[in-house]
Amino acid sequence: MSSLSMNKVRGRALNANTQNTNNYSMWMEPLSHGDYPLTHITNPTANAVVTSNGVKNVAIAQPGLLYNNVRLDVSGSVNPTRWTTGQTVNTMFLMPGDASFVQINTNISSGTVSSYIYTPRSNNSKIIIEYSALYNIGGNTGVDTDAFQSEIKVNSLTDPIAKRQQYFRSGDGTSNRSSTLFPIAGAYINSALTPIEFKIVLSRISGDDSIQFYSAYFDACMKITEISL
């Protein structure tokens, strides 16, 4: 291996870059990036070709890109197509008034309370649904127990991906003796890029009362988080 100082290596690179505006090459006896790490390309062109140990390695020479420190300054948007396991692929926060987000403003005992059709960004991901809403249960607790159930459903699945139940039992001091209907959260394992409809569904287990839901922007919300698997 020839004995080259860093100043000589840098001088060769700058001289080659001046002579050729498209690319430059540093030809020398075996030289590793470990011995002479490339950390900056002065006056970068569209592409720079750096040769080491006889192998050509293409480095995109653009302002803000550092070879070793992996810093990338981007003035526009970035649209990745691959993610590492556990990395967030996409996040959405929806509330009444947002496009395609459905939220009822009525009194029901059973039926769909809210829904949204989400298109995954990845075909190998976990989609987490979180929903919360303001609601008022009407009527009174008589002899029978008033009980309701909330679920997050996906059309392609028989079972819900989340379930909560709320019971109002009869008798003094009983009131609510269970979990509440909302907030509710669940996860769906996704393997395609086709749209998926997520529904928040209410059902009455027992009793004769109904529940009032609201649709002002501060009355309900849904958060969708897609995570790479």
List its salient traits:
Jelly Rolls; mainly beta; single chain; four-stranded antiparallel beta sheet; 229 residues; 1 helix
Detail the topology: elements first, then pairings.
Elements (H helix, E strand, L loop, with lengths): L5 H14 L28 E5 L2 E5 L28 E7 L7 E2 L3 E2 L2 E8 L6 E9 L1 E3 L8 E9 L7 E7 L15 E7 L5 E11 L4 E3 L6 E9 L1
Antiparallel strand pairs: 1-2, 3-14, 4-6, 5-13, 6-12, 7-11, 7-14, 8-13, 9-10, 9-12
Short description:
This protein is mostly beta strands and 229 residues long. The protein has one helix at residues 6-19; strands at 48-52, 55-59, 88-94, 102-103, 107-108, 111-118, 125-133, 135-137, 146-154, 162-168, 184-190, 196-206, 211-213, 220-228.
3D structure, described in words:
With 229 residues, this protein is mostly beta strands. It folds into two domains: 6-59, no CATH class; 88-228, Jelly Rolls. The protein is 6% helix and 38% strand. It has one helix at residues 6-19; strands at 48-52, 55-59, 88-94, 102-103, 107-108, 111-118, 125-133, 135-137, 146-154, 162-168, 184-190, 196-206, 211-213, 220-228. It has a five-stranded antiparallel sheet with strand order 4-6-12-9-10, with no helix packed on it. The chain has a four-stranded antiparallel sheet with strand order 3-14-7-11, with no helix packed on it. Strands 5-13-8 form a three-stranded antiparallel sheet, with no helix packed on it. The longest helix has 14 residues, at 6-19. The model is unreliable at 16-41 and 45-51 (pLDDT under 50).
